[in-house]
Amino acid sequence: MSSGYDELLTATIQHLEGLKEHGVRHVHVAPETLAALSQPPPRRVAVPAPRSFQSSVSSVQLPVQTPVSPPVQAPQLETENLKLKTFTELHARALACVKCPHLASSRKNVVLGVGSLDAELMFVGEAPGADEDAQGEPFVGAAGQKLTQIITAMNLSREQVYIANILKCRPDTPGQASGNRKPTSAEMATCIPYLHEQIDLIRPKVIVALGATAVEGLLGKGGGIMKLRGHWQTYRGTPLMPTFHPAYLLRNQALGEKRKVWEDMLATMERLGLPISGKQRNYFLKG
Fold first, then answer.
1. How many C-beta atoms surround the C-beta of residue 80 within 10 A?
2. Which residue did the predictor score with more confidence, 22 or 193?
3. FRET pair for 35, CA 20 to 30 Å: which of 107, 189, 190, 273?
4. Nearest to 122 by CA among 149, 158, 93
5. Residues with Cβ < 8 Å from 273, sequence gap 6 or more?
6. pLDDT band at 45 (very low <50, low <70, confident <90, very high)
7. Distances (CA, A) of 147 to 67, 73, 156, 166
8. Among residues 182, 178, 271, which one has the least CA distance to residue 225?
């Protein structure tokens, strides 16, 4: 086994251990990378010394070449390693962030994001709630369960997409025993550089903005989710689909409102080139 292979393997293991120490729970590895890793390292094949030039051609014995497995794609592994390293550094900076002292003093966890670092689809909400603050993961409460249902209906999983919020800390609620509040424009402006780094790192093909506050934080357009949802926008060069927040669907159980969100997801699937079945197209249609 080559020293270069050993060094790359050791660096990868050390980096994954660092991610674990920082609380990262899911790490996505591209299928082609897994396929390359499943192959044994390249073996060196001994080549016999050349015979005397005077040997007759008929007596020359060509060396039998043992099939050599394709080498591990080192450049690809190095790229994956760099992405993990960059994400680890981003996570560490977010954990130590005190740019909003009132949020830093009241939070239980910094909620950076969850999912695949190679995701083609990224969901962006506004801020963590009480459940997310307690668990350190976005969208794990009732609204998160609704989002998971939507993702599953798209024939995807939470591990295949990436889920984040504009604000990485739960907005403080002084004097309140429960409930949440909307992030302020100043809070979102202070925190959004972390989201920019996430987008630049993951490079999704499509972003879905969940709710009016997320749309306002991303596009600077407030109060227009009813008009904006279902209409493609662009954010930092990436197609963006505004849609209702899953919490809205929990408050409004009307079939027509569910259908609107699903139409937005169908448009997202089409933009991503995902297969859409007849059953999926007919979700929430009246008979």
1. 20
2. 193
3. 273
4. 158
5. none
6. very low
7. 49, 36, 11, 17
8. 182
CA atoms of 99 and 173, how far apart (whole Å): 18
211's enclosing H/E stretch is: none
Instruction: Look up tokens 């991610």; give the residue.
Output: 19
Question: Which residue in the block uniquely carries the two structure tokens 């910094």?
Answer: 110
Q: What separation in angstroms does the CA of 173 have from each of 44, 132, 181, 188?
A: 65, 15, 7, 16
pLDDT tens column, 77-112: 777 888 889 999 999 999 999 999 999 999 999 999
In whole angstroms, give the CA distance from residue 157 to residue 150. 10
Helical ranges in 107-254 per DSSP H: 130-135, 142-153, 185-202, 212-219, 225-228, 246-251
The values of phi and psi at residue 229, to 5°, are: -60, 140
Q: How far apart are CA 119 and CA 212, in angstroms?
A: 23
Eight-class DSSP state of 183 = P
- In angstroms, the CA 174 to CA 126 distance is 19
Domain 76-281 falls under CATH 3.40.470.10: yes
Question: Phi/psi of residue 207, each to 5°?
Answer: -115, 135
Element (H, E) at 173: none
Burial of residue 210 (CB within 10 Å: 0-12, 13-18, 19+) is buried
pTM over 0.85: no
Pick the more confident residue, 93 or 17.
93
Distance CA 198, CA 8 (A): 25
